[in-house]
Write a structure and sequence with these properties.
CATH superfamily of the largest domain in chain A: Acetylglutamate kinase-like
Oligomer: homodimer
Helix content of chain A: 25-40%
Shape of chain A: globular
Largest sheet of chain A: 8 strands, mixed
Distance between the termini of chain A: 31 Å
CATH architecture of the largest domain in chain A: 3-Layer(aba) Sandwich
Number of helices of chain A: 11
CATH topology of the largest domain in chain A: Carbamate kinase
Number of strands of chain A: 20
CATH class of the largest domain in chain A: Alpha Beta
Low-confidence stretches of chain A: none
């Protein structure tokens, strides 16, 4: 008897009709003889509505109270799905995060799971029940409700699958899998039958968000077999697995793009040791994540440093960068929001040295200027003018023949 | 430094504007130098809306899941009030029922509080925080969320006041106190400055519902000083206290009426021992509460038994009574929904034997026929035709000069 963990996102439980659809899938899995643990997000826009209510109380949104407020959304959808299952004759029980034994660090808003004590879940499973767990939440050592950050229900599902030794963790969402590129940009983008954990991590962090990156890391760490599939069709989704388990290693698996990028440049910094430290420590202290960094060559004892951050962080970055400029004696700073990042990702890239060059060639053929480049073992990213994004993604998709992926 | 428990009902927190109003009251109490524990109900119609959603899942409303669902309403209002307080510069923290240490029997839908472990509340109070507790809910020994039944937040507030040794428990509601009669029926009804616990209990159970009866019992048992007052005005409310603490003992304190009454009669029951037991055991087994009972005198070895139940229970009672009729050999049964109960309540009644007679006289003067009578030490109730209710209440209010109460 296999153990299956199923996770349904907010759009999959956005109405009672959709919850009935979910209940049908759960029952099908149960009728196939499996034990089933279901993790649900809050219904549709519930979380955003609760945030909207909270905002009306004033400008200060205490993190602990926000977590207490937001966690109720998943508790409601878990109870409603359970009521639906019981009305269909399927024995089921809902558990909140703390009832499910999900313990986290004492951090609010984006806590990490520190431990799971699954005794209650195991007891209910042994009693023949479908266990419906409220996603996105846990309990701190001090007994407070915490939340795991946006997409946290993915992490709940993967962590439970790991701890319970589930045979599969199915992530149901409103897309039916991971594509070679965003189908809205590339009309002949193909659904990938499988990708590696590392490819998925790169794709997620590069803007092709299907799964919370932390959930993928967790799955990789504990070897959880993941599948991304649609809750609205019975089509096979995309499996996420170890490279070694993949049928074949592709050189390039997909093209990702990300418009949530802003570029900052500091001009004429003195070329002395410690300057970079000063800049990036200040940004880190203000919680601003830096993605790519380039430094120009020395020019009369001075050089320029450019870096990218998310566009969301730009307002906060303005004041920090101005302070840093004064501290370091830079002659000026510029801020650009009209940039974007395009990336190619593929597990086979590390053994094929010509891939980056092929990427640059494809962009050059389209007369797209590359402003910044960064690479890892399985990806190459370029910052370009935002206006060229669609053209770049389409060109790269053609260049690496991704419409022929199978 | 006094400890004050304040309870705000659903209408007092029905919108963010009203929650701000509540926050102002809480802060005023705090600024007076008091420690404050606040208990809140769910916002406005939240509970009914959640019940409406649950009903759409099908006819079976599992009690445990309903409790899991409904408890979120109070958790949301507690978090939103806390966010509001913090935005006003008042340090505060919200606690769910289980975080507040409210333990109950393992019963769903109307659990009784079995124990409170108030360490967390005491810790937060000691830290100078206003503690906002989600009312209406607790935790079962098995770790499930339970609810305390309609009006359960009253019980939460009183129980916390008892355990914490609070100096006062203020119940804020949409009426500004307890009246000598329903002001919608008697236009010169007077607000009572004080009533005894027992009078309040009788008034509540007789249809003049201002406080959950269980909350009043709890307050009496632990000597909690209660006050019912309006969250929309600063007028003094009604204090609820021991008879011995009252300035003067009134013979009649108020007139209550109740339209949620139905009358059932079984005809020509054989006058043998055990018949009454058979009838009322069957009803009890089906969870139908019987209020008043009368038995006619023996007539040829047979008699009739009439009793009243709540009108809500009538549909279920129909089948139970028909079974009982067949079992007992009664010749027939009748069911009446066109009845109501009027009652007078007063702590001084027990030492004034003429009170019941005065009541019957007042009703007779209005040519109102009395169908059933029941009495306790501090109340007399009569079942009459529903159509005569307003006339009866007005006549009784006049008869006992309740418009002169002070």
């Amino acid at each position: 008897m296999a153990l299956v963990v199923q996770k349904f996102g907010g759009s999959s439980v956005a109405s009672l009709e959709r919850i009935r659809n979910v209940a049908n899938r759960v029952m099908r899995e149960k009728e196939d003889g499996n034990r089933v643990v279901v993790v649900v997000s809050a219904m549709g826009d519930t979380t955003d509505e609760l945030i909207g209510l909270a905002r009306q109380t004033g400008p200060v949104l205490d993190d602990r109270e926000m977590d207490a407020l937001l966690a109720t959304g998943e508790q409601q959808s878990a109870a409603l799905l359970t009521l639906t299952l019981r009305n269909m004759g399927c024995d089921a029980i809902s558990l909140t995060g703390w009832q499910a034994g999900i313990l986290t660090e004492p951090v609010h808003g984006k806590a990490r799971i520190s431990k799971i004590t699954p005794e209650r879940i195991q007891k209910e499973l042994a009693g023949g029940k479908v266990v419906v767990v409220a996603g996105f939440q846990g309990l701190s050592p001090g007994g407070d409700v915490t939340t795991l950050g946006r997409g946290g229900s993915d992490t709940t599902a993967v962590a439970l699958a790991a701890v319970l030794g589930a045979d599969i963790c199915d992530i149901y969402t409103d897309v039916d899998g991971v594509y070679t590129a965003d189908p809205r940009v590339v009309k002949d983008a193909r659904k990938l039958p499988y990708v590696s954990y590392d490819e998925m991590l790169e794709l997620a962090s590069l803007g092709a968000v299907v799964l919370q990156p932390r959930a993928v890391e967790f799955a990789k760490l504990y070897g959880v077999k993941l599948q991304v599939r649609s809750s609205f069709s019975f089509a096979k989704g995309t499996s996420i697995m170890e490279v070694g388990q993949m049928e074949k290693e592709r050189i390039v698996t997909g093209v990702a793009h990300d418009l949530n990028v802003a570029k900052v440049t500091l001009f004429d910094l003195p070329d002395v040791p410690g300057i970079a430290k000063t800049i990036f420590k200040s940004l880190a202290r203000h919680g601003i994540n830096v993605d790519m960094i380039i430094q120009s060559g020395n020019r009369n004892g001075h050089n320029d440093i450019s870096f990218t951050i998310t566009r969301d962080d730009l307002p906060r970055a303005l004041t920090v960068v101005e302070q840093v400029r004064q501290e370091t004696g830079a002659s000026g700073a510029s801020f650009g929001e009209d940039v974007a990042k395009v990336s190619i990702v593929g597990a086979g890239m590390q053994s094929n040295p010509g891939v980056a060059a092929a990427m640059f060639e494809a962009l050059a053929d389209e007369e797209i200027n590359i402003q910044m480049i960064s690479t890892s073992e399985i990806k190459v990213s370029c910052v370009i003018d935002a206006v060229n994004v669609a053209k770049a993604v389409q060109a790269l998709h053609r260049k690496f023949a991704l419409d022929e992926v199978d």
